[in-house]
Task: inverse folding
């Protein structure tokens, strides 16, 4: 496992200046290595006398149990993880029904947190390192899939999707940055971004009223001043 070090760069805040009108900056974390499931299982079981299949079954049971609790509006706490759910979105009236299945701006989001004693140990041992941020990096899309049920390169109308790759930066303060669907006629539809993580993961929701068919995924990087648009080569099916 790599050294416990959090790398960051300072990024200009496009919305806020100080009282004298000077630019202000905020830290932006750069994710290090990405560990896949097989590596995580090995880290948790190697040298501990725990058969990987037993570990997998136990974790699966735990996650299914908390998933059921959260889906019924409950919260939970444990020595490993605490969690609850929250709603995201706005309505046009006090009486409007919250309906994430039919309204692309509505979403129910899981809120999972490490217990406070684990967080204290983590933060007590961490180191931070400033790095110079690189700009004008071309977005690279490696995976596109529907989150639940998972389907690669196929997403249902009104459903949530996820893009995994590199240099996938989007910012509401930067005009036109984000994710678009491009149909065969070349017409584009902007997707609602629900979450993003350090240029490597972007979650979005497909409009419920979009026409079914084949589309290109088109990504506009908010961090690049030149050549912001990724080449149109990543296709998905909207059902």
Result:
């Amino acid at each position: 496992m790599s050294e416990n070090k959090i790398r960051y760069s300072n990024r200009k805040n496009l919305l806020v200046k100080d009282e004298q009108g000077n630019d202000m900056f905020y830290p932006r974390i750069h994710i290090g290595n990405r560990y896949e499931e097989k590596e995580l299982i090995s880290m948790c079981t190697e040298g501990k006398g725990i058969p990987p299949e037993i570990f997998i079954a136990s974790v699966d049971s735990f996650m299914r149990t908390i998933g059921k609790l959260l889906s019924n509006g409950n919260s939970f706490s444990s020595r490993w993880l605490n969690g609850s759910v929250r709603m995201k979105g706005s309505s046009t009236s006090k009486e409007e029904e919250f309906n994430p299945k039919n309204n692309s701006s509505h979403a129910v989001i899981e809120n999972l947190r490490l217990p406070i004693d684990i967080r204290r140990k983590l933060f007590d041992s961490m180191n931070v390192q400033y790095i110079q941020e690189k700009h004008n990096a071309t977005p690279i899309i490696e995976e596109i899939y529907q989150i639940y049920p998972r389907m690669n390169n196929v997403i249902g109308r009104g459903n949530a999707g996820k893009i995994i790759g590199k240099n996938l930066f989007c910012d509401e303060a930067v005009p036109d940055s984000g994710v678009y669907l491009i149909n065969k006629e070349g017409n584009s539809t902007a997707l609602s971004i629900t979450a993003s993580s350090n240029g490597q993961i972007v979650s979005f929701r497909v409009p419920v009223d979009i026409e079914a068919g084949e589309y290109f995924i088109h990504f506009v990087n908010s961090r690049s001043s030149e050549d912001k648009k990724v080449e149109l080569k990543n296709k998905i099916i909207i059902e």
Remarks:
- The helical segments are 37-45, 52-71, 116-125.
